[in-house]
Amino acid sequence: MSEYNESSVGTHDAESLERSIDWKQGLAIASGVPLLILPSLGYFPMWVAAAAILVWGLSVLQGFMQNLAYAEMATAFPKASGLPGFAQHVFTSKDYQGKYDKGKLIGGFSAWSYWFAWNPVLAIFAILVGSYLQGLFPGLGEMFTEYQLSLISGVVIFSGLIIVNYFGLKDGAVLGYILAAVSIIPLVVMTAVPFATGSVDMSNITSSWLPADWSWDMHHILILFGLFAIAQWSACAWETAAIYGPEYKKPSVDVPKALFVCGAICLLTFVLVQAAVIGVLGVEGVLAEPLSPMIPVAQAAFGESGSVITIIMLIAAMILIIQTAYLGSARAMHSMAHEGNLPKVLSKVNGHGTPVLAMVVIGLFNLVLISMGTPAAILAASAIGYTCANGISLFAYVKAKKDPRFINVERPFKAPAGWKNVAMLFGLFNIPLCLVGVVYLNSLEVGWFSTWVGFIVLGMYLPIWLYTQFETRQHNAAIGAVASK
Fold it and tell me: What's the predicted TM-score (pTM) here?
C-alpha cells in the first residue's frame, strides 16, 4: 500500500503544493535553524551556568531521536506537510459518521500547536532586528521608539519574503543559499576563531559548570525540564526540513537527507557557539550581555570592527530564520485547511504552489505579537505550542505503528526496530514533563502573562475548528443538493 507515486512531480491544483525542490534546497531553507540559539545564548547560563553547553548538546541528540520517527512518517505519508500533516492524517478517524471527529480534533490541535510554535519566530526576530539596527545606526533611536523600529522591520521583512516566495519554494531556497553564506559561515568562523587564537579560557567553563546554589530538588528539576522545553524549540527545530514533504521531488530520499545533514550542522553549531561565548566571556560576562553576547565575542576575535561585522551578519541571520519560520508556519496553516481543520480559504495556493493568503495572515498576526515587546515573553509562549506539537506527533507515530490502517503502508525510510517505544518515551518526556516545566519556568522568569497568551492562542483553536466543521457540513450539503437534482 503506497500513498504516493514519485512520478507525479510538478503537478498541482488550486490546493496542492508543487514538487519542485531536492534535499539540498530543503536544507538551504531549513539552515536557519542553527540561528535559533541566538535569543537564548544569554538566557540558559542564567539558570545553569556553563552546563548550558550540555543542555544544548542533549537537546540536539533528542532531536535525532524524535526526527528518526518523523523521517519515517514523512516517507510513509509523503503528501503530508511534516508534523502537522502526520498527526492530522493518523488521528483522523476513517469513515467517521458523527457530527464531530474527536481524532480529527486532536490531529488538528497538534498542527495548530506546531503552527503557533513556528509562527512567533517572525515577531521575535523582527524585534531583534530592530534592536540591532539601532545599535548599527544610533540615529534611528532618535527617530523611532524601539516598538516602532521593530514594527517597521517586521513590515519590511515580512512583505519582502512574501514577494520572494510568491514565485515558489525554489526562489525561497535561492534566498536561503545567499543568507546562509552571509550569516552561517561567518557565525561558524566567529565561533572557531576564539578557539584557534586562545581567546577561549576553558576554566571559564570548568569552574562554573553549575550555579553555586544549584541542588537537585523539585524546584531545580522543574527548571531543568523547562529549559529542555525551550532548548528543543531551538535545537530540535530542524524537523522543519520534513514539512516540505509535499514539495520534494523524491521525498523518500530527499527528506531523510535534508533532516540529518541539518541535524549534524545543529549538533556542531549549538554546542560550539555556546561554548565559545562562555569560554570567552565567562558566565558573568555572558549575563552582562544577555541579548547580544556574540558582539563582545566578535570584538575578541576581530577587534572593534568585529562588532559592526557581527551586527550585519546577525541581521542577515535573523532574516534567514524568519524565512524558515515563515515558510514552515505557512505550510502548517495550509495543511490544516487542506485537512478540513481550518477554513478552506486558507488552503488556496497561487499558480506557483505558494499559500500566499496563509503567509499574509501570519504576517499580520506577528505584527500584533510584536506588541508583546520582549523576545523572551514571546518565546516562552511559543515553546508551550512546540512542546504540545512534538508530544502529540510522537504519539501519532506510535499509533501509526499499531493501527491496522497504517501497518502495511510502504515506508521507504524506516527507523530502527522498536522505535515506537523510543517515540513513546520522548512523547511522555514532552507531555507532561517538559510542558509542566516550561509553564513553571515561565512563571519564574516572565510571569504568567506569556503562559496565558500561549494557552489562549492554543485555546482559540476550538471555536475556529468548530466553525470549520460547520463550514464543511454546509459545503457538503450544498454539493449533495446539487447532485440530487
Answer: 0.85
